[in-house]
Amino acid sequence: MALQASQEELFTHVLNDAALGSSIYINIALAGLSLLFFAFLGRNVEDPRGQLIIVSVMMVSAVSVASYTGLASGLTISILEMPEGHAMAGETTQLAGGAEYEGTISLWGRYLTWALSTPFILLALGLIAGSNVTKIFTAIVFDIGIMITGLAAALTTSAHLMRWFWYAISCTFFLVVVYILLVEWPEDAKAAGTADIFNTLKLLTVILWFGYTIWWALGNEGVAVISSVGVTSWGYSAFDVVAKYGFSFLVINYVINNIDTVSGGTTYGATSDAIPADD
Ligand code: RET
Q1: pLDDT below 50 — which residues of the chain?
Q2: Are the C-beta atoms of residues 192 and 130 closer than 8 Å to each other?
Q3: What is the atom index within ligand 1 of the atom nearest the CA of 60?
């Protein structure tokens, strides 16, 4: 028995496992199509601040294409041996190619790439709320903290308790983000005149983000009530569809229809006093 599955074996396995494969490949297509659709929707927006919000949410889909490609290719997937006490300890995994390995499949690339995609969700939210740089920065750095410590939780195999310790750190960071979303930004949004859309986006975000958090705990990385790798993966993929593409659509649609509210003027973000080009 070989000790480590190769990328090629994992790539073939994903391709041949209907549930796991579809949860990944369908999202590459959706992310790519939504990116094109959003570029089309936003094509006539000329206001720099409006464009910034649109580009920000488009980046979520762009990162998603890369994220799911990483998973599909086997680059960001591993078979990990869970520590004693974990529900999946002692499990073996039979890959589509026939080889059997000790351990369970971890799609750890998701947590890594969330660190690169979710900051753009928060940037868009902070801009819509008209918040200041300090609060936007705070939300984003704690968000990156959530994902990197979540990655650490998923990859830790030394001791069962250490996995949950990482998880607890990640949840603590999450509470900071939730506080900004539920307490700080709604106030800012009221002042900015964007309270209606902000409150919709805020609820969507907070509810879904708690969904990811609970799903991790229930899935095959956590207590494994859901032990199937494919079902666990489909859960995240389904959340992604709403939290990424649904969310982005609402944001872009709002910006297009309320450009005067989100506008910061034609010189917004200028880095010199020069008159901006009239393109
Ligand atoms: C983890 C596990 C550790 C504890 C917490 C988590 C939260 C994850 C969240 C993910 C959101 C992802 C989104 C992706 C869309 O691109 C890492 C699952 C708190 C909130 C919105």
Answers
A1: none
A2: yes
A3: 16
